[in-house]
Specification:
The complex is a heterodimer of chains A (495) and B (432).
Chain A: H1 3-21, E1 64-72, E2 78-87, E3 90-96, E4 107-110, E5 115-118, E6 120-125, H2 163-169, E7 173-178, E8 186-189, E9 191-194, E10 212-216, H3 219-225, H4 234-268, H5 283-292, E11 297-302, H6 305-318, E12 322-327, H7 335-340, E13 344-347, H8 365-371, E14 377-379, H9 390-403, H10 410-413, H11 419-424, E15 442-445, E16 456-461, E17 464-468
Parallel strand pairs in A: 1-4, 1-5, 6-7, 10-11, 11-12, 12-13, 13-14
Antiparallel strand pairs in A: 1-2, 2-3, 5-15, 7-9, 8-10, 15-16, 16-17
Helix pairs in contact in A: 4-5, 8-9
Chain B: E1 3-5, H1 9-13, E2 23-32, E3 42-51, E4 54-59, E5 69-72, E6 77-80, E7 82-84, H2 127-132, E8 136-141, E9 150-158, E10 166-176, H3 178-182, H4 189-208, H5 210-215, H6 225-230, H7 232-235, E11 240-245, H8 248-261, E12 265-269, H9 277-283, E13 287-289, H10 308-315, E14 319-321, H11 332-341, H12 346-353, H13 355-360, E15 378-381, E16 394-397, E17 400-402, H14 407-415
Parallel strand pairs in B: 1-5, 2-5, 2-6, 7-8, 10-11, 11-12, 12-13, 13-14
Antiparallel strand pairs in B: 2-3, 3-4, 6-15, 8-9, 9-10, 15-16, 16-17
Classes of the chains: A alpha/beta (495), B alpha/beta (432).
Chain lengths: 495, 432
């Protein structure tokens, strides 16, 4: 069953359990010493640029050369007997062995017969905000209290000790976008993380990555709010979106007017005149205005083709861009329109039927999206198990495309879980391929990554080895799992 | 005269309704018989003769009898049909649509163990052809619990999609234990076990003297007569009791319960079963497990590991695989492949999809291997059936090749070309 569906079903029960439990609210942990202080914006000032900044720093790495593998470089090429050189956390070179200079100071690792891909990227995860164990205490993914909660930032829910992160890295996942759930029309801000254990979520935040906005179509908002004041219908949902955008546009204009006045006041230099007063900040509208401006990427949960087409019109009405339709079970029905509008479809290989809007799934969905000129297919997980096997999900979707006669070589299919999500998340300048100068996020697979028998053997994040299947020293274990009786035989990365 | 058919979706479709075909020869395939030590018997180039829906002969070379239809399996791997040892097939069409989901009762409802999947099973469900096209030929279909701990009586069905697909009624009873049981019994596992024992005790009392039991003056509100009646075959050890349970401590209690009550049990889930593997083997309790479950989803699943299947198999426990969902029984081979990637021998993984699943359900006399006398459910695979690219070339159930078409393939074909045509896509495509 689809995660979103399941969560929404249990939502009411969990909320009730939480209320009944009457647990004491524990004090918020104090800021960690390694976090940078914020810019210190006071109430009423313009919104600070980055009040919860990334404190992620790559772990130390030397110069490493991985030699002899078949490389799917994420940029669209397959290279037999290739070499990848990583230096200072970046890709120094990747190509055929004969074309790549191996530096004298490199630690050379022979990986003959193995495969290398860029680090896998999941554009849709709930690791950290729906962590394991999944209890009422940890259910932090859906602020299902109002259909518009654009003001929540899901990083404030992410538990960095979720054991799911350690399992995901054993599946080659180096970058992921954690999204709020789909109960609401406007669910809030996403956060993009590097999959590296940290004491804080700031310590995982992908440096410089833009924020995403989560929105949801269809059944979920109706189901959650149908008897809680609405929306109770799809038309009610569209009213809710449009009212949100209208308010956001007004908010944007109010701030623009203020900034213009302030500029004028400063230019005049007459301090005897009152300094213009800024409008009151509104977290909800701040996020929505930034989405209108294109500074925050819009991620829209939408299953049905006809609804996606309505959303495309709405985006035109208000002048914003939908970057990706998530779940997009019916993307194949409108693959041409998606491609014309430059919108990606982030989908499962074969989940279906857990609700009516997921009834028309076909296994060839990704392949049919891809087959359109300019089509952008992405395979996503939305699931703490699926995120461990995005290579397998892609393999199935590729196989069904091949079976219907479409030409999808593996070096192309790998882009569905590397370059394409990187682009859709606004981080393709930094990761998603093995091109020189990008972050050295690299996976060495034991064999063809599209075989069920292959597993990620070594995973590098910014050039640093973060998982090694053959070396227990490189298998992360979260606080939660430490000291449990089964520790020697279960738990942690790759187990 | 002998008719020879090419394999392929179109050819298989031509067989629809051909279940009357009396004699069929699967010719020259690589047969995974699922017999012998470690189920490793393979006939590299073998034939299977099928008569009246049963396997009549398995040999290296069988001359086609007169009038037989011949399926050329050269270069193909032939396995027994895959069996889903757990599902809600025919009970659920749309998970979240109440009208299209009969898998469990919701809200307060008087009956539980008495519910019978046979009464609700819909052989026309679209899930059946979708999963059949992936080589699933049989499934247990079990009701799942509502507010009470028993789900009800399961059926064993074929995936022919025909009204005759229920072959075994009362194939199992289902009870949720672990926290699933506890949450229905005072939020403690003690409550779950006490409630289960009380039900069996009352069922025994009822079985001994049904009319006397009904006439007793005790408070009957806790037990429904119909439920106690339905538990009769369970207390007799004739009907399998499938218990969902994960934690090693819960499983130890289950082993003790089996000894004390003399019932026949199988485990569904069993994330920590590996920690009790030797005891389970000795107690002859099979485990229907999800080999990809490796997250500490709750405090009795902290020991979930990808090694579970391999460790249980090594200890001699009969294993089968729990599908990720009823809609996706078709992903069972992927689960098996992942078990192999994590140490389970290949043949043991195939067994988990075939003979192991049949054994877990006590149905191995008729299903799960390619042997004379067994029901003729066979799948022809162009490549490794556990690989992610594996899609069957032909699926034979009850001795007849079955259609590989389904609602999803029809939707795919409708939308593969999006160019505007003379009529909307909703009209039949013009004949090519």
């Amino acid at each position: 069953m689809g995660c979103d569906a399941l969560r929404d079903l249990t939502l009411g029960k969990q909320a009730a359990a939480e209320e009944e439990a009457g647990e004491e609210v524990t004090a918020a942990p104090s800021r960690l010493a390694d976090a940078e202080p914020s810019s210190g914006a006071a109430f009423g000032d313009p919104p600070p640029e980055d009040p919860y900044p990334s404190t992620y720093e790559p772990y130390p790495s030397g110069v490493t050369a991985l030699v002899g593998a078949t490389i799917y470089d994420g940029a669209g090429s397959a290279i037999e007997d290739g070499a990848v050189v990583m230096r200072d956390g970046l890709i120094a070179a990747a190509g055929a062995r004969g074309d790549v200079a191996i530096p004298g100071d490199a630690a050379v690792i022979e990986v003959d017969g193995k495969f290398i891909t860029p680090g896998i990227i999941d554009i849709h995860s709930h690791l950290g905000n729906y962590p394991s164990p999944g209890t009422a205490s940890t259910s932090d993914g859906n602020e299902a209290t109002s259909p518009n909660t654009a003001g929540v930032w899901t990083e404030h829910s992410v538990w960095p000790q979720d054991p799911g992160f350690t399992r995901a890295i054993a599946g080659g996942v180096t970058t992921l976008q954690v999204l709020p759930g789909s109960a609401n029309l406007f669910g809030g801000r996403s956060v993009i993380l590097k999959n590296v254990p940290s004491r804080s979520v700031q310590g995982m935040k992908f440096p410089g990555a833009p924020y995403g906005l989560k929105m949801a179509c269809g059944e979920n908002p109706k189901r959650v709010y149908g008897d809680k004041g609405g929306p109770a219908t799809r038309m009610g949902s569209f009213e809710g979106y449009r009212e949100g955008w209208i308010e956001a546009a007004a908010y944007r204009d109010k701030w623009a007017a203020y900034e213009e006045k302030l500029e004028q006041w400063e230019a005049e230099g007459d301090k005897s005149k009152d300094k213009p007063t800024p409008p009151t900040r509104d977290l909800k509208l701040e996020t929505l205005a930034a989405a209108l401006a294109g500074d925050i990427i819009v991620n829209m949960h939408c299953y049905r083709a006809d609804e996606m087409l309505q959303v495309i019109d709405m985006a035109q009405e208000f002048g914003y861009r939908v970057t990706t339709f998530h779940h997009a079970v019916e993307a194949y029905k409108i693959a041409d329109v998606l491609a014309e509008n430059g919108i990606c479809a982030a989908i499962w290989a074969d989940w279906w039927g857990f609700k009516l809007e997921a009834y028309d799934a076909v296994r060839e969905n990704a392949a049919l999206v891809h087959a359109q000129p300019g089509g952008c297919a992405i395979i996503h997980s939305d699931d703490p198990r699926g995120i461990q096997r995005l290579n397998q999900e892609t393999a199935k979707a590729m196989a069904d495309g091949l079976a219907m006669g479409l030409d999808i070589p593996p070096e192309t299919a790998i882009q569905w879980i590397t370059l394409h999500p990187a682009r859709a998340m606004g981080i393709a300048e930094k990761t998603g391929t093995l091109e020189a100068g990008k972050m050295a996020d690299v996976v060495v697979w034991s064999g063809d990554p599209f075989s069920v028998y292959s597993r990620a053997e070594r995973v590098y994040v910014d050039g640093a080895l973060m998982f090694d299947r053959n070396d227990p020293a490189f298998r992360a274990r979260t606080d939660f799992e430490l000291g449990q009786q089964v520790e020697d035989e279960a738990g942690g990365s790759g187990r | 005269m002998i008719r020879r058919f090419l394999i392929g979706a179109g050819a298989a479709a031509a067989f629809v309704g051909a279940s009357d075909a009396q004699t069929l020869l699967v010719d020259n395939g690589r047969l995974h018989l699922m017999t012998g030590p470690d189920y490793a018997d393979v006939l590299a180039e073998g034939d299977v003769l099928i008569r009246d829906g049963k396997i009549a002969e398995v040999a290296a070379q069988i001359a086609p009898p007169d009038g037989a239809e011949v399926i050329d399996a050269e270069g193909m791997i032939v396995t027994p049909g895959f069996i889903a040892a757990w599902s809600q097939l025919g009970l659920v069409e749309i998970g979240l649509d109440k009208e299209a989901n009969d898998a469990s009762v919701s809200g307060p409802f008087a009956l539980s163990a008495a519910l019978d999947a046979r009464d609700a099973f819909n052989p026309a469900s679209t899930l059946i052809p979708v999963n059949r096209a992936a080589g699933i030929t049989r499934a247990l279909s079990a009701p799942t619990p509502g507010e009470k701990m028993f789900g009800g009586q399961a059926i064993f069905v074929s995936l022919t999609g025909e009204p005759t697909s229920i072959t075994h009624a009362g194939a199992a009873q289902y009870v949720t234990l672990g926290y699933g049981g506890a949450s229905r019994a005072g939020d403690t596992r003690m409550g779950a076990w006490a409630s289960l024992r009380a039900h069996l005790e009352e069922a025994r009392a009822y079985a001994l003297d049904p009319s006397g039991y009904v006439g007793r003056t005790i408070d009957l509100s806790r037990f429904s007569i119909r439920d106690l009646e339905a538990l009769g075959p369970v207390i007799d050890g004739e009907q399998l009791l499938i218990a969902s349970v994960h934690g090693a401590s819960d499983i130890r209690t289950l082993i003790r319960f089996k000894q004390e009550e003399g019932v026949n049990v199988a485990i569904l889930g069993g994330d920590e079963a590996w920690a009790v593997a030797d005891d389970l083997a000795e107690a002859e309790i099979p485990v229907i497990l999800d080999p990809m479950s490796n997250l500490p989803g709750n405090f009795r699943r902290l020991g979930a590991t990808l090694q579970n299947a391999a460790r249980l198999d090594a200890a001699g426990v009969t294993i089968a695989f729990q599908p990720p969902s009823t809609h996706n029984l078709r992903l069972l081979p992927q689960s098996a492949g992942n078990a192999v990637a994590n140490g389970l021998p290949y043949e043991a993984a195939l067994a988990g999809l075939t003979i192991g699943a049949a054994k877990a359900l006590g149905l191995d006399a008729d299903f799960g291997s390619i042997e004379t006398g067994k029901v003729a459910d066979l799948v022809l695979w162009p490549g490794d059936p556990l690989e992610l690219s594996a899609r069957p070339a032909a699926v034979i159930i009850d001795g007849a090749p079955r259609s590989l078409e389904n609602r999803a393939t029809r939707l795919r074909d409708r939308y593969r070309d999006l160019d505007r045509t003379d009529l909307p896509l909703a009209y039949p495509a013009p004949q090519q």
